[in-house]
Amino acid sequence: MIDALNIRELQQASRARLPAGVHAFVERGVEDDISVAANLAAFRDLKMQPRVLRGVASIDLSTDILGQRVCAPMAIAPTGGNGMLWYRGDEALARAAAAAGIPFTISTASSIDVEEIARAGGRLWFQLYMWEDRKLSHAAMDRAWASGCDTLFITADMAVPPNREFMRRMGFGLPFKVGRRSLLDIVSHPRWALGVMGRYVLNGGLPRQANLPLELKGTLTRDPQRRASFVNDTLDWDEVKGLRDRWKGKFIVKGVMRGEDAQTALAIGADGVVVSNHGGRSLDCSAPTVSVLPEVVSAIGGRGTILFDGGIRRGTDVVKALALGADAVLLGRATLYGLAAAGQPGVEQALAILKAEIRRTMGLTGSRTIAEVSRDLLAHSSDD
């Protein structure tokens, strides 16, 4: 257990353990980090107007997400590079989510086979990028379904590669290349070097792109073969509809920031959307996710599931997103800080912190169930 009372302190613990370049891969966004800062600032600007004397001795965090009951209105978001933060990091995240009674979303960029992650138990979702060879993506979908993933996420907000200048400047990135600067950074963080990279070397080698056929799997130190490169610039609504028709379970479009796009997603058969600007890691100067959430809720509220992603650091943030109409939130950096600091126990600690903060916020705003978290909990401003 890390000596941390909140997500910010887990963030500080992760920074101390990770080489600067690896920590920046988690922490930074793109270009000037404007979108990352805006996501956080927008939550701080939202104020609450609590109800009182409501009798909150019993508070229930459970809710339904996509047809199943979960212990809290949260799920762990799909993130790549988890195996660089902790040995077999995707597995640690999945086990922590299962223990907390919330879903875990497997990323296409996972370094562990979907079948292996599925053995961790719990409810699993799968997020899909499109490889240049579309047959590879279709095969990954089929593997995910066969492994028990009940929901597919199509990421729509990464049409072209983002401009992550800091990765080139710091000498870190994917593929992972060791240069003079990055080598010094690694040597100065022996716990990470031995506990992560050392364990991979001792147990069969560096992580690979797990969701590819064996002949195309490359380690995190190699450029992928062309067929195994993510290519999303030709992805359009017609192709997404084809994916919807192919997938047997629930289907979500991730990265929606406009009401009209949310409506189109439902029209082609999606069960819902994730309101997200990719955590500020795609387009810099993107609007804060929480500021566009009301537009999406107005467009499709009640007709499809609305998940929220971007800037969650406190239980108050979760309650604010729910009050604006989200059905649940996705956790990215908040759980990655715990993973980088202490592995599975660190992720469990992050989730426990957020659950406690959600429960406390609900009690202080007079909300006994998730259904009682409503828009009138948010104070009106002159902008309203």
Number of domains: 1
CATH topology value: TIM Barrel
- Number of strand elements: 10
Q: What would CATH call the homologous superfamily?
A: Aldolase class I
Give the fraction of residues assigned to helices.
40-55%
Strand content: 5-15%
Calculate the mean pLDDT score and round it. Answer: 92
Tally of alpha and pi helices: 15
The best one-word shape is: globular
The rounded Rg comes to 20 Å
Oligomer: single chain
What class, by secondary structure content? alpha/beta
Distance between the termini: 43 Å
SSE string: HHHEEEHEHEHEHHHHEHEHEHEHH
Question: Sheet bearing the most strands, described?
Answer: 8 strands, parallel
Low-confidence stretches: none
Query: What's the CATH class, please?
Result: Alpha Beta
CATH architecture: Alpha-Beta Barrel
Key terms:
384 residues; TIM Barrel; 10 strands; alpha/beta
Q: Would you give an account of this structure?
A:
The structure is a single chain. The protein is an alpha/beta fold. It has one domain (7-377): TIM Barrel (Alpha-Beta Barrel), CATH 3.20.20.70. 41% of the residues lie in helices and 11% in strands. β7, α11 (259-267) and β8 (272-275) form a beta-alpha-beta unit. The model has no long low-confidence stretch (mean pLDDT 92).
Compile the SSE list and pairings.
Elements: H1 7-17, H2 20-27, H3 34-45, E1 63-65, E2 68-70, E3 74-76, H4 89-100, E4 104-106, H5 114-118, E5 124-128, H6 134-146, E6 151-155, H7 165-170, H8 180-187, H9 190-202, H10 237-246, E7 250-256, H11 259-267, E8 272-275, H12 289-300, E9 305-309, H13 315-323, E10 328-331, H14 333-342, H15 344-364
Parallel strand pairs: 3-10, 4-5, 5-6, 6-7, 7-8, 8-9, 9-10
Antiparallel strand pairs: 1-2
Helix pairs in contact: 1-14, 4-15, 11-12, 13-15, 14-15
